[in-house]
Amino acid sequence: MSIQVKSLTKTYGEQKAVNDISFSIETGEIVGFIGPNGAGKSTTMKIITGFIPPTEGVVEVEGYDVSENSLKVREMIGYLPENNPLYENMFILEYLNYVAGIYKIKNRKARIQEIVEMTGLTKEVHKRIGTLSKGYRQRVGLAQAILHDPKVLILDEPTGGLDPNQIVEIRSLISQLGKEKTVLLSTHLMQEVEAICDRVIIINNGKIVANDKASKLSEMKMDEELTVVVEFDQKVKPSALREIKYVTKAVNLKEQQYLVQSKAGKDIRASLFQYAVKNNLTVLSMAQKDKSLEDVFRELTKE
User: Fold this and answer.
1) Are the C-beta atoms of 76 and 62 separated by less than 8 Å?
2) Which long-range contacts (CB under 8 A, 24 or more apart) does 117-126 make?
3) What count of other Cβ atoms lies within 10 Å of the Cβ of residue 178?
4) Is 293 exposed, middle or buried (0-12, 13-18, 19+ CB in 10 A)?
5) Kind and range of the H or E element at 204?
6) Arithmetic mean of pLDDT, 35-48
7) Residue 114 contacts by C-beta under 8 Å, 6 or more apart in sequence?
8) Long-range contacts of 33-38 (CB under 8 A, 24+ apart)
9) What phi-psi label fits residue 30: left (phi over 0), alpha (psi between -120 and 50 degrees) or beta?
10) Which of 37, 46, 210, 255 could make a disulfide contact with 202, Cβ separation 3.0–4.6 Å?
């Protein structure tokens, strides 16, 4: 295992920010680590990277106990924290050269040039960090995280502040890096998790509530409500659809297309056909709407 978390707990006073969680990540896996604000994501990442100690439990990175071998672990980890602290008065090349010196990187100039091109910093490379947009500051943070070619990447909101084109570029880079590195990725963008992650860990109130492939999580029945998208040949009032037995929700999506939801355990598809026949309507299409990862996330983390 590249990352092994065993019975991890972090307490601040009487509050348990992380409450007895365990999970493991294999080499070459990209794992999405998601949860509401304050769920314990950043705390867990800081413990894995050795920035803060656990109250209880053990974390191992590449077989090394983080508490006992903090410096060794830090050599193997590339970390992009959520607030991305940078030396704003430094130029980009100056800063990356400084980081390369800390890690005692050989062929420093060539490696820095490689990373600058990889992270799309070439056009901005001669600017001071303090003059950069948030998106380019994020790229600098990612550049310092991968500069020393770490075996493990811990990325907390890596695409924060990026425009849609930049997001696609950074996602592609993370996917490439994930082929040979272990990546633990925290984000609030569900589409990002679905796009690049092999597996998803959902944390809520300091506890793991799900740990599986995104496709598997989307198949979870959760509250067992049935959601149907139906299209008629004429417009109808959503209020009329809500009068059908067991229908709890009906909204007009577009033109004559409607999203209709049933009570838990009740299949309302036959009732929708009966409604159509009774009102001289033709059902042009009807399909069950699969739960998205976002749906599953809300269901697992709602109070």
Assistant:
1) yes
2) 118/143, 118/146, 118/173, 119/143, 119/146, 119/170, 119/173, 120/166, 120/169, 121/92, 124/92, 125/92, 125/93, 126/91, 126/92, 126/93
3) 19
4) buried
5) strand 199-204
6) 94
7) none
8) 33/184, 33/185, 33/186, 33/201, 33/203, 34/186, 34/187, 34/188, 34/190, 34/193, 34/200, 34/201, 34/202, 34/203, 34/297, 35/202, 35/203, 35/204, 35/301, 36/204, 36/301
9) beta
10) 210
Q: At 196, which helix (H) or strand (E)?
A: helix 190-196
Per-position DSSP letters for 211-248, written without gaps between them:
EE-HHHHHT--TT---EEEEEESS---HHHHTTSTTEE
The span from the CA of 50 to the CA of 41, in Å, is: 14
Q: Find the angle CA(171)-CA(175)-CA(181) to the nearest 5 degrees.
A: 130
Note the pTM of the prediction, 2 decimals.
0.78
Mean pLDDT of 75-90: 92
160 or 23: which leads in pLDDT: 23
The DSSP secondary-structure symbol of 164 reads H
Place of tokens 């577009």: 254
Lowest mean pLDDT among 13-17, 44-48, 219-223, 242-246: 219-223
Which of helix, strand or coil describes residue 250?
strand
Phi, psi (5° rounding) for residue 90?
-85, 150
Nearest to 34 by CA among 217, 205, 201, 157: 201
Strands in 56-61's sheet, in edge-to-edge order, are: 15-25, 3-12, 56-61, 64-65
Q: What is the pLDDT of residues 87-123, one digit of tens each?
A: 999 999 999 999 999 999 999 999 999 999 999 999 9
Tokens 């030396």 correspond to: 87
Give strand pairing partners of 25: 3
The answer on pLDDT for 224 being more than 90 is no
Lowest mean pLDDT among 107-111, 166-170, 228-232, 240-244: 166-170
